[in-house]
Automatic annotation (TrEMBL):
Pfam families: LAGLIDADG_3. GO terms for biological process: intein-mediated protein splicing. This is DOD-type homing endonuclease domain-containing protein. InterPro entries: Homing_endonucl (IPR027434), INTEIN (IPR006142), Intein_endonuc_central (IPR004042), LAGLIDADG_dom (IPR004860). Residues 151-299 form the DOD-type homing endonuclease domain. It comes from Candidatus Yanofskybacteria bacterium RIFCSPHIGHO2_01_FULL_41_53. One of its GO terms (molecular function) is endonuclease activity. Signal peptide: none annotated.
Length: 336
C-alpha cells in the first residue's frame, strides 16, 4: 500500500455546494480511476473517497493538492481552508447557548457543584482507593460502647477477619432483616461503605468491609485474624469488665450463633409447649464467659459439651426482658 500523505490532523477544504462532488468526478475521469485507485494515491480508504464524493465530509487540503497535481489541474477556486478542529468552536458556541438558556449562566451553579462535590466526597469519595494516595483508607474509630460490644458479639458468632477484610456471614432468607440491622450498625460505628455478596449456592450473604486499618482496629479490640476456634476465641476483657457491654455482646452472640426453639411433649393426654434458647460454640473459653454472664444475671444455663441451653421458662423470659434480641427471626419464634 502506498505511503499515507494524510496528516494526523489535516486541514479541511470547504467547497460550495455540489462542487466537491464535481471535483472528485473530474479526478476520476482525468485519471481513469475508481474510488479504490484514488484512495491508494492519497493513502486513505475507498469509503472515505466515496464520502467525499457524496459530500458527507469535507476532504483534506493535502489530498486536494495531491490529486490536483496528479491530474495536472489547477486548485479549485472559491474554496475555504479550515484549520484542524475548526468544528470545536461551532460546537462549543452551540453548547454554551444551550447551557445559558437552561441555567441562566455558563458553567451552571458553582455553589451547587461545590455542595454536591462535598456530599459525594464525604459519603463515597474519601473512602475509595486511590493510586495517588498510597495510604490505607480512613474510617471512624468509635470508643467503647454497647453498640460496639454488640457488633463484637456478632463477629464472634458469625464473623471473621482476614488481613484485608472483615466479614459477617448470615442466612440470606432467615436473616434478611437482621442483615439490614448489622449493616446499619457497621455504618453507624465506622462510617464506611460496605458490600454485600450473595452466595445462593450455600444460601448466605456476606457483609464485607475492606479496610486494612479497620481490621487492625478490630484485632486490637480482641477479635482474632484467622481461625477463631483454633485461637480459642473469647469475649474481650474490656467487655467482660462492664455489665452493659457484656449483655450487649451476648445479644450479638445469640442473635448469630444461637436459636430459639419450642420444646413440645405430651404426658398422657396433656400437651406441653415451652420456649428454649440454645447457643453453640466449640470454644471453651467463650462457653465459660457466656455462662458467667448469664449466672451474673441469675439465669441458670444448662451445658452439654458444645451447647448451652436456657431451659427454665423464667430464665428464657428474663433473657428476653433484660438482654432481648435485634434479630427479627428470634423475636418471631419467641412471641409465636
Amino acid at each position: 500500500m502506498a505511503n499515507s500523505y494524510i496528516e494526523k490532523y489535516p486541514s479541511r477544504v470547504k467547497f460550495r455546494p455540489n462542487k466537491q462532488r464535481r471535483f472528485i468526478l473530474l479526478i476520476q475521469n482525468k485519471l481513469d480511476a475508481n474510488a479504490e485507485d484514488i484512495s491508494k494515491i492519497v493513502g486513505t480508504s475507498p469509503r472515505t473517497i466515496r464520502d467525499w464524493r457524496r459530500e458527507r465530509i469535507n476532504m483534506s487540503f493535502s489530498a486536494l493538492k495531491i490529486l490536483s497535481r496528479k491530474a495536472k489541474i489547477s486548485l479549485p477556486s472559491n474554496i475555504r481552508v479550515l484549520k484542524p478542529f475548526w468544528y470545536t468552536r461551532i460546537g462549543a458556541k452551540a453548547g454554551g447557548v444551550t447551557v445559558l438558556r437552561k441555567y441562566g449562566r455558563i458553567g451552571g451553579d458553582p455553589e451547587y457543584r461545590r455542595a454536591r462535590w462535598y456530599e459525594w466526597w464525604n459519603k463515597t469519595g474519601k473512602y475509595r482507593h486511590s493510586y495517588l494516595r498510597n495510604s490505607p483508607l480512613p474510617f471512624h474509630k468509635p470508643g467503647h460502647s454497647k453498640n460496639l460490644a454488640e457488633l463484637v458479639g456478632v463477629f464472634i458468632g458469625d464473623g471473621g477477619l482476614t488481613k484485608y477484610q472483615a466479614k459477617i456471614t448470615l442466612h440470606h432468607k432467615d436473616d434478611k432483616q437482621y442483615i439490614k440491622f448489622v449493616s446499619n450498625l457497621i455504618t453507624k460505628l465506622f462510617r464506611v461503605p460496605i458490600k454485600i455478596h450473595h452466595r445462593p449456592n450455600i444460601s448466605v450473604k456476606d457483609i464485607v468491609i475492606s479496610r486494612v486499618n479497620l481490621v487492625a482496629y478490630l484485632n486490637r479490640l480482641g477479635l482474632p485474624v484467622g481461625n477463631k476456634i483454633k485461637q480459642n476465641i473469647d469475649i474481650p476483657a474490656w467487655i467482660k469488665e462492664n455489665s452493659d457491654y457484656s449483655m450487649a455482646c451476648l445479644r450479638g452472640l445469640v442473635d448469630t450463633d444461637g436459636c430459639i426453639f419450642t420444646h413440645r411433649y405430651r404426658v398422657g393426654s396433656k400437651k406441653y409447649s415451652y420456649k428454649k434458647i440454645s447457643f453453640a460454640t466449640a470454644s471453651h473459653p467463650l462457653m465459660k464467659s457466656v455462662k458467667n454472664i448469664l449466672k451474673n444475671l441469675e439465669i441458670k444455663p444448662y451445658i452439654n459439651k458444645e451447647e448451652l441451653r436456657i431451659e427454665n421458662q423464667n430464665g428464657v423470659i428474663k433473657y428476653f426482658n433484660i438482654i432481648g434480641s435485634h434479630n427479627p427471626k428470634h423475636l418471631r419464634k419467641y412471641h409465636n
